[in-house]
Specification:
alpha+beta, Fumarylacetoacetate hydrolase, domain 2, seven-stranded mixed β-sheet, 7 helices
């Protein structure tokens, strides 16, 4: 078995058993980004074969400070599947070392081109923006991750929640919008749109061009989780989470008690 297949199996078994594993960089190296995406691709393909459907992508590592911490100069991406979209109360048993972050999500109304995507083309393709809470998780024990660990682990994706207000771009301030996130009525995270690569649109544009180069451009109906507007917050059973983003309203999710 190749190291890539072994790393994929290691993460897959971790998900199935609910038991964390040691870092997969021990198998694929700490800097081999190409290998890490191959691991991600194997496990996403396995989930699709079992019936899950791709619905878009998430952008990770959109904070320049976090990029520096992990020794990279660009974000990463993971695949969103339909079974990741949740609402109301989420079964805590489905999660592994969960944390939450609030971000701006986009939904596309038209396909993006096969070649280079301009900011104008991306903006014109976006149907609306919506507030989102991403539930991130890690199969790697104690979140002991480097860039290849998180990419292989589908950019540490777990689940996501969307708000109910659909807002057309231009009807709110993408860069200056204020985000606040409460955990059990305590404010635990805040930030602005500019915290996401200067603007959530910049993160979306990076994703669009990265996927176009890979021959897999974004399509009408795809969702984009553009990246956190503030620090992540860990959650435990029974927690209640609510976030607001200026111009986009609020979004909330609860976690079941064990």
């Amino acid at each position: 078995m190749s190291n890539i297949n072994e790393a994929a199996l290691k993460l897959r078994n971790s998900s199935k058993t609910g038991t964390t594993c040691s870092p997969v960089r021990e198998l694929i190296g700490a800097t081999n980004i190409e290998a890490a995406y191959k691991v991600q691709e194997i496990n996403i393909a396995e989930r699709i074969e079992k019936g899950a459907k791709p619905v878009g992508c998430k952008v990770g590592l959109t904070s320049f400070a976090v990029q520096k911490q992990l020794g990279v100069d660009q974000p990463d991406f993971g695949i969103l599947l339909d079974d990741m979209l949740v609402s109301g109360t989420v079964d805590y048993h489905l999660l592994m070392q969960p944390k939450v972050e609030a971000e701006v999500a986009f939904v596309l109304k038209s396909d993006l081109p096969q070649g280079e995507v301009t900011e104008k083309a991306l903006v014109e393709a976006i149907d609306y923006a919506v507030a989102s809470i991403e539930i991130v998780g890690s199969r790697v024990e104690n979140w002991d991750i480097r860039i290849t660990d998180t990419i292989a682990d589908n950019a540490s994706a777990s689940h996501f929640v969307l708000g109910s207000e659909h807002v057309i771009l231009g009807n709110f301030d993408l860069v200056g919008c204020q985000m606040k996130l409460w955990l059990n009525d305590e404010l635990v995270s805040e930030g602005k749109g500019e915290a996401c690569m200067g603007s959530p649109i910049n993160a979306g544009l990076w994703l669009a061009n990265t996927l176009a180069k890979l021959g897999n451009p974004l399509k009408a109906g795809d969702m984009i989780l553009s990246g956190a507007l503030g620090p992540m917050a860990p959650v435990k059973p029974g927690d209640r989470v609510r976030a607001t983003i200026d111009g986009l309203g609020e979004v909330w999710v609860n976690f079941s008690a064990i």
